[in-house]
Amino acid sequence: MCGIVGYFGLREAAPLLIDGLQKLEYRGYDSAGVAISNEEGIKVSKCKGRLANLESKLIETPLKGNVGIGHTRWATHGEPSDVNSHPHSNSKISISVVHNGIIENYLKLREWLISKGYEFLSETDTEVIPNLIDYYYEGNLIEAVMKAVSSMEGSYAIGVICSKEPDKLVAVRKDSPLIVGLGKNESFIASDIPAVLNHTRDIYLLEDKEFVVLTQQGVTLLNEMGEEITKEPYHVTWNADAAEKGGYEDFMLKEIHEQPKAIKDTMASRISLDHDIILDKITITKENLKEIDRIFMVACGTAYHAAVVGKYAIEKLAKIPVEVDIASEFRYREPLITEKSLVIVVSQSGETADTLAVLRDSKKKGARVIAVTNVVGSSVSREADDVLYTWAGPEIAVASTKAYVTQLIAMYIIALHFAALKESLSSEEIYDIKKAMLELPTLAEETLENKDVLQKFADQTYMERDMFFLGRGLDYAVSMEGSLKLKEISYIHSEAYAGGELKHGPIALIEKGTVVIACVTQSYLADKMVSNIKEVVTRGAKVIAIALEGNTDIEKSVDSVIYLPKTLDILTPVLSVIPLQLIAYYVAKQKACDVDKPRNLAKSVTVE
Ligand code: F6R
């Protein structure tokens, strides 16, 4: 995600900020910028693209000063562009801010600030922050920042400089990481430790709502009441390589653990119990929807598996018929697309060749196209009629994990939005689903705690040549994703079957010791799945089940069970995929595979 660096000291700030931002490049970004303060005021330099572009700009027009903030931006609100890059400032450029996170109530704040005479240049949520601070500023920067953040909802790590107090850098965090580097006669802020490791190994790890003020006298920490607090510095003993992975062994494991936050971010500002679903870039109206006779959902790989869940969700909640297909098949099978079709393409990267081709063909045939993508400004986002961004942040491991769960959330959001437009669900039913969705980040955290059984399962099975995944309904959709994860990172052959299909062929493969992973989270299909499990157990299969808490009966039929916290049947894929990702991960680690870069695979498939 975005990277923040701030410097206060005796050295020139600009090169130090660039150096720190380079250490955060692994987080992914599409634009970069710095703001430097000196006696003459604040000067900002920022641009779209790589850090090298910013460096060239700074060579042409150097910014001098010993206090500054820098940022690498991964676009969420607004395209990657010079104007949307951070730092953002008030119109007098007396206050500049870098920000990571999402300000959920930014639209409200923006309207309110406009009514007070403030002007906005960018499409970002961040731009409200310097203007809010300006509004509250009465000669004391820290007080103004405290007042501003008390009106902000959402997640943030921010660094602030002010031309009226050039001897100060103020920062604060909530639900977004921020650390303080303690150097000799200098100090730093950063969103991650690698950014400061060239200069210091002593850091403060800020907690939510803790403020920090960097001055010539040193570093002052304050709580949300403005009272000074003390903290033990943390001495970093690991190297920058390990730090990039946030203490996890691999990016994949880190990204699996980022899922609760990714789920929360993707719902942020869109789903709330107080208001209807807000979809910034989907403008389909009730009338448009009435004219649509069929939805096609098209994608590749993991994104296709999310689309399969989308089909279930849209048909069940919005009662619109949905066809789901793999993009490479769909584009050559002469699908019956007309002006009455709605095509939803799902793509993490937004650049997958087959998916993009489907989008273009569909538009030529007069269909309306919605893109669900994780990359702002990607080809599908530019070419589609409507866009729903998943806010998973950059995914570095080749095997998709957090992008998949956020695609699922996007599917539910679209299904609920259509259900509301079509009035196929009552407002009480929509309320109940939204309520259950808002619980998912916490339930995903709980699901991640279940690692010991999964690790043990991996220890016992990593030498297998084949594994089978079984499920019915949405459990079948998730089984396909679990099977793909296992084969792509552990190179173990695996297949996912719909429980009811077993008898039609695949059961011939089951013999003594065959490993079967059975998903049994759909209450209305549980009995049928238990029958399928019995069919394989009778033939000697070793079965691990993924079931919902309370379904202890399942223990009688299988060798081990992973329990998931209870949620609505329709939402279980968001949780049930987590143990499947972890099984794939632990099996691959046991086999000493490179989980982040599996053989023969690329992160973005831009050729056919
Ligand atoms: C598997 C995986 C791939 C992608 C597929 C589509 O872990 O990541 O199957 O899902 O290549 O990519 P996007 O979503 O970028 O279109």
Any idea what the CATH superfamily of the largest domain is called?
A: Aminohydrolase, N-terminal nucleophile (Ntn) domain
The stretches of 5 or more residues where confidence is low (pLDDT under 50) are none
Q: What is the correct CATH architecture of the largest domain?
A: 4-Layer Sandwich
Total helical elements: 19
CATH topology (level 3) name of the largest domain: Glutamine Phosphoribosylpyrophosphate, subunit 1, domain 1
| Helical coverage, percent range | 25-40%
Strand arrangement within the widest β-sheet reads: 3-2-4-1-10-9-11-15
Hetero compounds: fructose -6-phosphate
What do these coordinates show?
The protein is an alpha/beta fold and 608 residues long. It has three domains: 3-244, Glutamine Phosphoribosylpyrophosphate, subunit 1, domain 1 (4-Layer Sandwich); 253-438, Glucose-6-phosphate isomerase like protein, domain 1 (Rossmann fold, 3-Layer(aba) Sandwich), CATH 3.40.50.10490; 449-590, Glucose-6-phosphate isomerase like protein, domain 1 (Rossmann fold, 3-Layer(aba) Sandwich), CATH 3.40.50.10490. Helix content is 36%, strand content 22%. The chain starts with a strand and ends in an 18-residue tail after the last helix. The model has no long low-confidence stretch (mean pLDDT 94). Residues 300-303, 347-349, 352, 355, 399-400, 484, 488, 604-605 line the site of fructose -6-phosphate. Residues 300-303, 347-349, 352, 355, 399-400, 484, 488, 604-605 line the site of fructose -6-phosphate (F6R).
